[in-house]
Protein backbone atom coordinates (compact mmCIF):
# COMPACT_ATOMS: atom_id res chain seq x y z
CA UNK A 1 0.00 0.00 0.00
CA UNK A 2 1.18 3.48 -0.77
CA UNK A 3 2.06 5.46 2.31
CA UNK A 4 -0.23 8.30 3.26
CA UNK A 5 1.21 11.42 4.82
CA UNK A 6 -1.13 12.96 7.40
CA UNK A 7 -0.55 16.26 9.13
CA UNK A 8 0.18 16.12 12.90
CA UNK A 9 -3.09 17.97 13.57
CA UNK A 10 -5.10 15.37 11.66
CA UNK A 11 -3.31 12.50 13.41
CA UNK A 12 -4.13 14.10 16.73
CA UNK A 13 -7.79 14.50 15.76
CA UNK A 14 -8.00 10.82 14.80
CA UNK A 15 -6.20 9.50 17.86
CA UNK A 16 -8.14 11.54 20.41
CA UNK A 17 -11.31 9.72 19.26
CA UNK A 18 -9.75 6.30 19.85
CA UNK A 19 -10.24 4.01 22.82
CA UNK A 20 -7.56 3.69 25.48
CA UNK A 21 -6.84 0.08 24.49
CA UNK A 22 -6.26 1.14 20.89
CA UNK A 23 -4.02 4.02 21.95
CA UNK A 24 -1.88 1.74 24.07
CA UNK A 25 -1.36 -0.47 21.01
CA UNK A 26 -0.75 2.55 18.76
CA UNK A 27 2.23 3.52 20.95
CA UNK A 28 4.10 0.75 19.10
CA UNK A 29 3.50 2.27 15.66
CA UNK A 30 6.40 4.70 15.85
CA UNK A 31 8.42 6.80 18.24
CA UNK A 32 6.54 9.90 17.11
CA UNK A 33 3.16 8.30 17.88
CA UNK A 34 4.41 7.09 21.24
CA UNK A 35 5.63 10.57 22.09
CA UNK A 36 2.31 12.06 21.02
CA UNK A 37 0.16 9.60 23.00
CA UNK A 38 2.35 9.97 26.11
CA UNK A 39 2.27 13.77 25.93
CA UNK A 40 0.42 15.34 28.87
CA UNK A 41 -1.38 17.73 26.53
CA UNK A 42 -2.74 14.88 24.42
CA UNK A 43 -3.78 12.91 27.52
CA UNK A 44 -5.88 15.87 28.68
CA UNK A 45 -7.25 16.38 25.17
CA UNK A 46 -8.31 12.73 24.92
CA UNK A 47 -9.91 12.87 28.38
CA UNK A 48 -11.77 16.08 27.57
CA UNK A 49 -13.16 14.57 24.36
CA UNK A 50 -14.31 11.44 26.21
CA UNK A 51 -16.09 13.48 28.88
CA UNK A 52 -17.72 15.90 26.45
CA UNK A 53 -18.99 13.20 24.09
CA UNK A 54 -19.70 10.52 26.75
CA UNK A 55 -17.46 8.03 24.96
CA UNK A 56 -15.09 5.56 26.61
CA UNK A 57 -17.54 5.28 29.53
CA UNK A 58 -17.85 2.22 31.75
CA UNK A 59 -19.90 1.18 34.72
CA UNK A 60 -17.80 0.32 37.74
CA UNK A 61 -19.39 -2.43 39.84
CA UNK A 62 -17.82 -3.13 43.20
CA UNK A 63 -18.56 -5.03 46.39
CA UNK A 64 -16.62 -5.93 49.50
CA UNK A 65 -15.50 -9.43 48.58
CA UNK A 66 -12.61 -11.23 46.95
CA UNK A 67 -12.13 -10.10 43.37
CA UNK A 68 -14.53 -7.28 43.98
CA UNK A 69 -14.26 -4.80 41.08
CA UNK A 70 -15.92 -5.21 37.69
CA UNK A 71 -16.21 -3.05 34.59
CA UNK A 72 -19.09 -2.95 32.10
CA UNK A 73 -18.80 -1.09 28.81
CA UNK A 74 -21.62 1.47 28.79
CA UNK A 75 -22.05 1.35 25.01
CA UNK A 76 -23.01 -2.33 25.11
CA UNK A 77 -24.00 -3.14 28.73
CA UNK A 78 -23.58 -6.84 27.98
CA UNK A 79 -20.81 -8.41 30.03
CA UNK A 80 -19.06 -7.56 33.29
CA UNK A 81 -15.31 -8.07 33.27
CA UNK A 82 -13.32 -8.35 36.43
CA UNK A 83 -10.63 -5.69 36.81
CA UNK A 84 -7.49 -7.28 38.18
CA UNK A 85 -5.46 -5.08 40.47
CA UNK A 86 -1.74 -5.95 40.30
CA UNK A 87 -1.05 -8.77 42.76
CA UNK A 88 -4.64 -8.83 44.02
CA UNK A 89 -4.93 -12.54 44.80
CA UNK A 90 -6.41 -12.91 48.26
CA UNK A 91 -6.79 -9.14 48.69
CA UNK A 92 -9.98 -7.14 49.20
CA UNK A 93 -10.40 -3.52 48.11
CA UNK A 94 -12.99 -0.83 48.70
CA UNK A 95 -13.42 1.76 45.95
CA UNK A 96 -13.33 5.22 47.54
CA UNK A 97 -13.98 7.19 44.38
CA UNK A 98 -13.46 7.46 40.63
CA UNK A 99 -12.21 10.54 38.80
CA UNK A 100 -10.88 10.96 35.24
CA UNK A 101 -10.12 7.26 34.93
CA UNK A 102 -8.29 6.97 38.25
CA UNK A 103 -9.63 4.94 41.16
CA UNK A 104 -8.82 5.52 44.82
CA UNK A 105 -8.70 2.19 46.65
CA UNK A 106 -8.45 1.12 50.28
CA UNK A 107 -7.20 -2.37 51.00
CA UNK A 108 -9.46 -4.05 53.55
CA UNK A 109 -8.32 -6.49 56.19
CA UNK A 110 -10.23 -9.28 57.89
CA UNK A 111 -10.53 -8.13 61.51
CA UNK A 112 -12.66 -9.63 64.33
CA UNK A 113 -15.56 -7.32 65.20
CA UNK A 114 -14.48 -7.04 68.85
CA UNK A 115 -11.12 -5.68 67.78
CA UNK A 116 -12.48 -3.34 65.09
CA UNK A 117 -12.09 -0.05 66.96
CA UNK A 118 -8.59 -0.82 68.18
CA UNK A 119 -7.60 -1.94 64.67
CA UNK A 120 -9.12 1.14 63.06
CA UNK A 121 -6.99 3.55 65.03
CA UNK A 122 -3.80 1.50 65.18
CA UNK A 123 -3.72 0.16 61.66
CA UNK A 124 -1.71 1.58 58.82
CA UNK A 125 -4.25 2.18 56.09
CA UNK A 126 -3.03 1.10 52.68
CA UNK A 127 -4.38 3.41 49.98
CA UNK A 128 -3.76 3.04 46.26
CA UNK A 129 -4.34 5.05 43.12
CA UNK A 130 -5.04 2.86 40.13
CA UNK A 131 -5.73 3.41 36.45
CA UNK A 132 -7.38 0.16 35.27
CA UNK A 133 -7.09 1.21 31.61
CA UNK A 134 -3.30 1.57 31.67
CA UNK A 135 -2.91 -1.01 34.47
CA UNK A 136 -0.68 1.32 36.47
CA UNK A 137 -0.96 1.61 40.26
CA UNK A 138 0.66 3.54 43.06
CA UNK A 139 0.63 2.98 46.80
CA UNK A 140 0.13 6.17 48.82
CA UNK A 141 2.16 7.11 51.90
CA UNK A 142 0.93 5.54 55.13
CA UNK A 143 -1.07 7.85 57.38
CA UNK A 144 -2.35 6.76 60.78
CA UNK A 145 -5.40 8.28 62.45
CA UNK A 146 -4.13 10.92 64.88
CA UNK A 147 -6.28 10.36 67.98
CA UNK A 148 -7.55 7.51 70.16
CA UNK A 149 -11.31 7.32 70.73
CA UNK A 150 -13.00 7.07 74.10
CA UNK A 151 -14.04 3.73 75.57
CA UNK A 152 -17.74 4.09 74.70
CA UNK A 153 -17.38 5.93 71.42
CA UNK A 154 -17.90 4.52 67.92
CA UNK A 155 -15.66 5.70 65.07
CA UNK A 156 -16.71 6.12 61.45
CA UNK A 157 -14.53 7.03 58.50
CA UNK A 158 -15.60 8.74 55.27
CA UNK A 159 -13.61 9.29 52.10
CA UNK A 160 -13.68 11.38 48.96
CA UNK A 161 -11.55 11.50 45.82
CA UNK A 162 -11.40 14.12 43.09
CA UNK A 163 -9.43 16.51 40.92
CA UNK A 164 -8.52 20.17 41.33
CA UNK A 165 -8.00 21.65 37.83
CA UNK A 166 -6.47 24.89 39.13
CA UNK A 167 -3.45 23.07 40.55
CA UNK A 168 -3.72 19.99 38.29
CA UNK A 169 -3.82 17.87 41.43
CA UNK A 170 -5.69 14.70 42.43
CA UNK A 171 -6.70 14.69 46.09
CA UNK A 172 -7.95 12.03 48.49
CA UNK A 173 -9.83 13.22 51.59
CA UNK A 174 -10.36 11.19 54.76
CA UNK A 175 -12.77 12.29 57.50
CA UNK A 176 -12.76 10.47 60.85
CA UNK A 177 -15.65 11.19 63.24
CA UNK A 178 -16.08 9.73 66.71
CA UNK A 179 -19.04 10.57 68.97
CA UNK A 180 -19.46 9.38 72.57
CA UNK A 181 -23.01 9.54 73.90
CA UNK A 182 -22.12 8.97 77.56
CA UNK A 183 -19.79 11.95 78.01
CA UNK A 184 -21.02 14.16 75.16
CA UNK A 185 -17.62 14.18 73.43
CA UNK A 186 -17.12 14.50 69.70
CA UNK A 187 -13.74 14.12 68.00
CA UNK A 188 -12.86 14.38 64.34
CA UNK A 189 -9.91 14.57 61.98
CA UNK A 190 -9.64 15.62 58.32
CA UNK A 191 -6.62 14.67 56.24
CA UNK A 192 -5.97 15.52 52.59
CA UNK A 193 -3.57 13.67 50.30
CA UNK A 194 -2.12 15.55 47.30
CA UNK A 195 -0.77 13.62 44.30
CA UNK A 196 1.44 16.61 43.41
CA UNK A 197 3.31 16.47 46.72
CA UNK A 198 2.70 12.78 47.53
CA UNK A 199 1.98 13.91 51.07
CA UNK A 200 -0.89 14.02 53.62
CA UNK A 201 -1.87 17.28 55.32
CA UNK A 202 -4.13 17.93 58.32
CA UNK A 203 -7.06 20.26 57.66
CA UNK A 204 -9.48 21.98 60.02
CA UNK A 205 -12.15 19.68 61.43
CA UNK A 206 -15.28 18.99 59.43
CA UNK A 207 -17.97 21.23 61.02
CA UNK A 208 -20.89 18.79 60.47
CA UNK A 209 -22.00 15.29 61.38
CA UNK A 210 -21.83 13.09 58.31
CA UNK A 211 -24.82 10.85 57.60
CA UNK A 212 -23.65 7.26 57.62
CA UNK A 213 -25.21 6.10 54.36
CA UNK A 214 -22.21 5.75 52.05
CA UNK A 215 -18.48 5.26 52.35
CA UNK A 216 -17.42 7.79 49.74
CA UNK A 217 -18.38 11.33 48.73
CA UNK A 218 -20.18 12.51 45.60
CA UNK A 219 -17.91 14.49 43.25
CA UNK A 220 -19.52 17.45 41.46
CA UNK A 221 -18.06 20.77 40.30
CA UNK A 222 -14.60 19.95 41.69
CA UNK A 223 -16.02 19.50 45.20
CA UNK A 224 -16.82 16.51 47.41
CA UNK A 225 -20.32 16.25 48.88
CA UNK A 226 -21.80 14.45 51.89
CA UNK A 227 -25.23 14.39 53.52
CA UNK A 228 -24.79 16.02 56.91
CA UNK A 229 -26.58 17.39 59.96
CA UNK A 230 -25.78 19.96 62.61
CA UNK A 231 -26.93 17.61 65.40
CA UNK A 232 -26.00 13.95 65.80
CA UNK A 233 -28.08 10.94 66.75
CA UNK A 234 -26.49 7.83 68.18
CA UNK A 235 -27.46 4.28 69.05
CA UNK A 236 -25.56 1.08 69.69
CA UNK A 237 -25.43 0.09 66.03
CA UNK A 238 -25.50 3.24 63.94
CA UNK A 239 -24.03 6.69 63.88
CA UNK A 240 -26.58 8.72 61.97
CA UNK A 241 -28.19 12.11 61.80
CA UNK A 242 -31.36 13.72 60.61
CA UNK A 243 -30.59 14.95 57.12
CA UNK A 244 -30.47 18.74 57.21
CA UNK A 245 -27.93 19.85 54.61
CA UNK A 246 -25.44 18.85 51.96
CA UNK A 247 -21.90 19.86 52.89
CA UNK A 248 -19.18 20.32 50.27
CA UNK A 249 -15.40 20.33 50.47
CA UNK A 250 -13.90 22.43 47.67
CA UNK A 251 -10.83 20.65 46.30
CA UNK A 252 -9.30 23.92 45.11
CA UNK A 253 -9.68 26.19 48.13
CA UNK A 254 -9.96 23.26 50.58
CA UNK A 255 -12.79 25.09 52.33
CA UNK A 256 -16.22 23.86 53.40
CA UNK A 257 -19.53 25.19 52.15
CA UNK A 258 -23.23 24.34 52.48
CA UNK A 259 -25.64 23.32 49.73
CA UNK A 260 -29.23 24.04 50.76
CA UNK A 261 -32.05 21.63 50.01
CA UNK A 262 -35.31 22.27 48.13
CA UNK A 263 -38.06 23.70 50.33
CA UNK A 264 -40.86 21.31 49.34
CA UNK A 265 -39.49 17.87 50.17
CA UNK A 266 -42.21 16.98 52.63
CA UNK A 267 -41.96 14.53 55.51
CA UNK A 268 -41.42 10.81 56.16
CA UNK A 269 -38.76 10.32 53.55
CA UNK A 270 -35.28 8.92 53.21
CA UNK A 271 -32.65 10.66 51.13
CA UNK A 272 -29.49 10.08 49.17
CA UNK A 273 -27.31 12.09 46.82
CA UNK A 274 -25.49 11.29 43.60
CA UNK A 275 -24.07 12.89 40.45
CA UNK A 276 -25.55 12.68 36.96
CA UNK A 277 -24.67 14.64 33.85
CA UNK A 278 -22.26 16.81 35.83
CA UNK A 279 -25.03 17.94 38.21
CA UNK A 280 -25.73 17.23 41.85
CA UNK A 281 -28.79 15.00 42.37
CA UNK A 282 -30.98 14.58 45.44
CA UNK A 283 -32.99 11.38 45.71
CA UNK A 284 -36.03 11.54 48.02
CA UNK A 285 -37.74 8.20 48.72
CA UNK A 286 -41.26 8.11 50.15
CA UNK A 287 -41.69 4.47 51.15
CA UNK A 288 -45.30 4.83 52.34
CA UNK A 289 -46.49 5.84 48.86
CA UNK A 290 -43.79 3.90 46.93
CA UNK A 291 -42.47 7.00 45.12
CA UNK A 292 -38.93 8.22 44.47
CA UNK A 293 -38.43 11.88 43.52
CA UNK A 294 -35.16 12.75 41.77
CA UNK A 295 -34.12 16.41 42.02
CA UNK A 296 -31.33 18.02 39.98
CA UNK A 297 -29.43 21.20 40.87
CA UNK A 298 -29.17 22.78 37.42
CA UNK A 299 -27.02 25.71 38.57
CA UNK A 300 -24.48 24.54 41.08
CA UNK A 301 -24.76 26.16 44.50
CA UNK A 302 -28.01 27.99 43.72
CA UNK A 303 -30.85 26.72 45.91
CA UNK A 304 -33.53 28.06 43.56
CA UNK A 305 -32.16 25.93 40.69
CA UNK A 306 -33.27 22.67 42.32
CA UNK A 307 -35.69 21.09 39.83
CA UNK A 308 -37.73 17.93 40.26
CA UNK A 309 -36.41 15.89 37.37
CA UNK A 310 -38.71 12.88 37.60
CA UNK A 311 -40.96 10.98 40.02
CA UNK A 312 -40.57 7.22 39.78
CA UNK A 313 -43.03 4.72 41.22
CA UNK A 314 -41.06 1.91 42.83
CA UNK A 315 -43.68 -0.57 41.65
CA UNK A 316 -41.82 -0.30 38.30
CA UNK A 317 -39.12 -2.42 39.92
CA UNK A 318 -39.16 -5.86 41.46
CA UNK A 319 -39.33 -4.62 45.05
CA UNK A 320 -39.27 -1.50 47.15
CA UNK A 321 -35.77 -0.33 46.61
CA UNK A 322 -33.15 2.37 46.93
CA UNK A 323 -32.76 4.12 43.58
CA UNK A 324 -29.77 6.07 42.26
CA UNK A 325 -29.66 7.86 38.88
CA UNK A 326 -26.40 7.21 37.02
CA UNK A 327 -26.30 8.50 33.46
CA UNK A 328 -28.46 9.54 30.51
CA UNK A 329 -28.81 7.27 27.51
CA UNK A 330 -27.11 8.33 24.29
CA UNK A 331 -30.32 9.94 23.00
CA UNK A 332 -31.11 11.53 26.34
CA UNK A 333 -34.61 10.02 26.47
CA UNK A 334 -33.77 7.46 29.17
CA UNK A 335 -31.92 7.37 32.46
CA UNK A 336 -29.92 4.43 33.76
CA UNK A 337 -30.92 3.70 37.37
CA UNK A 338 -29.19 1.55 39.95
CA UNK A 339 -31.79 -0.20 42.10
CA UNK A 340 -30.54 -1.73 45.33
CA UNK A 341 -33.38 -3.97 46.39
CA UNK A 342 -34.03 -6.91 48.68
CA UNK A 343 -32.74 -9.35 46.07
CA UNK A 344 -29.50 -7.57 45.21
CA UNK A 345 -28.33 -4.92 42.79
CA UNK A 346 -30.21 -4.28 39.56
CA UNK A 347 -29.95 -1.85 36.67
CA UNK A 348 -32.90 -0.35 34.81
CA UNK A 349 -33.30 2.04 31.90
CA UNK A 350 -36.18 4.35 32.82
CA UNK A 351 -37.96 5.92 29.84
CA UNK A 352 -38.69 9.57 30.64
CA UNK A 353 -41.66 9.66 28.24
CA UNK A 354 -43.44 6.36 28.75
CA UNK A 355 -42.54 6.19 32.46
CA UNK A 356 -41.61 2.54 32.05
CA UNK A 357 -38.54 0.73 33.35
CA UNK A 358 -36.69 -1.97 31.43
CA UNK A 359 -34.30 -4.19 33.36
CA UNK A 360 -30.74 -4.39 32.05
CA UNK A 361 -29.29 -7.88 32.21
CA UNK A 362 -25.51 -7.98 32.46
CA UNK A 363 -23.71 -11.30 32.14
CA UNK A 364 -21.24 -12.22 34.92
CA UNK A 365 -22.27 -9.24 37.09
CA UNK A 366 -22.21 -9.80 40.88
CA UNK A 367 -25.54 -10.17 42.68
CA UNK A 368 -24.92 -7.27 45.07
CA UNK A 369 -22.92 -4.23 44.08
CA UNK A 370 -22.55 -0.50 44.23
CA UNK A 371 -22.07 1.25 40.93
CA UNK A 372 -20.70 4.49 39.53
CA UNK A 373 -19.58 5.79 36.18
CA UNK A 374 -15.93 5.64 35.14
CA UNK A 375 -14.28 7.12 32.08
CA UNK A 376 -11.36 5.24 30.55
CA UNK A 377 -8.30 7.45 30.27
CA UNK A 378 -4.53 7.65 29.87
CA UNK A 379 -4.12 9.81 32.99
CA UNK A 380 -0.79 8.88 34.61
CA UNK A 381 -0.06 8.46 38.31
CA UNK A 382 3.20 10.39 38.43
CA UNK A 383 1.95 13.95 38.61
CA UNK A 384 2.09 16.08 35.46
CA UNK A 385 4.66 13.95 33.67
CA UNK A 386 3.85 12.60 30.23
CA UNK A 387 5.21 9.09 30.69
CA UNK A 388 2.76 6.37 31.71
CA UNK A 389 5.44 4.59 33.70
CA UNK A 390 8.56 6.30 35.04
CA UNK A 391 10.57 3.09 34.90
CA UNK A 392 9.69 2.37 31.31
CA UNK A 393 12.37 4.59 29.81
CA UNK A 394 15.51 6.19 31.17
CA UNK A 395 15.83 9.91 31.71
CA UNK A 396 18.19 10.45 28.76
CA UNK A 397 15.92 8.67 26.32
CA UNK A 398 12.94 10.65 27.52
CA UNK A 399 14.79 13.96 27.05
CA UNK A 400 15.86 12.95 23.53
CA UNK A 401 12.32 11.97 22.57
CA UNK A 402 10.93 15.19 24.01
CA UNK A 403 13.42 17.32 22.10
CA UNK A 404 12.92 15.41 18.87
CA UNK A 405 9.14 15.63 19.00
CA UNK A 406 8.89 19.14 20.45
CA UNK A 407 7.18 20.52 17.37
CA UNK A 408 4.58 17.75 17.48
CA UNK A 409 3.85 18.39 21.16
CA UNK A 410 3.32 22.07 20.46
CA UNK A 411 0.81 21.21 17.79
CA UNK A 412 -1.08 19.04 20.26
CA UNK A 413 -1.50 21.92 22.69
CA UNK A 414 -2.80 24.14 19.91
CA UNK A 415 -5.60 21.81 18.81
Can you offer a commentary on this structure?
This protein is α+β, with helices and mostly antiparallel strands. The protein folds into two domains: 1-55 and 382-415, no CATH class; 57-376, Kelch-type beta propeller (Neuraminidase). The chain is 15% helix and 40% strand. The protein contains seven helices and 27 strands. It has helices at residues 8-15, 20-26, 31-38, 40-53, 116-122, 395-404, 406-414, and strands spanning 57-62, 69-73, 80-82, 92-99, 102-108, 127-131, 136-139, 154-164, 169-180, 185-194, 199-203, 209-210, 218-220, 223-229, 233-234, 239-240, 245-250, 256-259, 270-276, 279-286, 291-297, 306-313, 322-328, 334-341, 344-351, 357-360, 370-375. Strands 12, 13, 14, 17 and 18 form a five-stranded antiparallel beta sheet that branches. The longest helix has 14 residues, at 40-53. The model is unreliable at 111-119, 234-241 and 384-415 (pLDDT under 50).
Q: Which helices and strands occur, and which strands form pairs?
A:
Layout: H1 8-15, H2 20-26, H3 31-38, H4 40-53, E1 57-62, E2 69-73, E3 80-82, E4 92-99, E5 102-108, H5 116-122, E6 127-131, E7 136-139, E8 154-164, E9 169-180, E10 185-194, E11 199-203, E12 209-210, E13 218-220, E14 223-229, E15 233-234, E16 239-240, E17 245-250, E18 256-259, E19 270-276, E20 279-286, E21 291-297, E22 306-313, E23 322-328, E24 334-341, E25 344-351, E26 357-360, E27 370-375, H6 395-404, H7 406-414
Antiparallel strand pairs: 1-2, 1-27, 2-3, 4-5, 5-6, 6-7, 8-9, 9-10, 10-11, 12-14, 13-14, 14-17, 15-16, 17-18, 19-20, 20-21, 21-22, 23-24, 24-25, 25-26
Amino acid sequence: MASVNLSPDLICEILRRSSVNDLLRFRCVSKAWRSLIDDSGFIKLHLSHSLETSTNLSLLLSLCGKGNIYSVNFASLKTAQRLKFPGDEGRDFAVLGSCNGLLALLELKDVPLALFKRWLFKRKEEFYLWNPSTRKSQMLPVNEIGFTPGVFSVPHVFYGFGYDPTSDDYKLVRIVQCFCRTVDVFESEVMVYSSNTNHWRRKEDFPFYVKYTRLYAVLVNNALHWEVSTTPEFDSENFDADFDLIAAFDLGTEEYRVIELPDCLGERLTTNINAMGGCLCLIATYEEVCVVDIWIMKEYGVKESWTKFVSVKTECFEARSDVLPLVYSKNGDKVLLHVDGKFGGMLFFYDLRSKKADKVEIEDAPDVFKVEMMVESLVPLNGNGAMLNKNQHGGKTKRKNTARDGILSKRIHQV
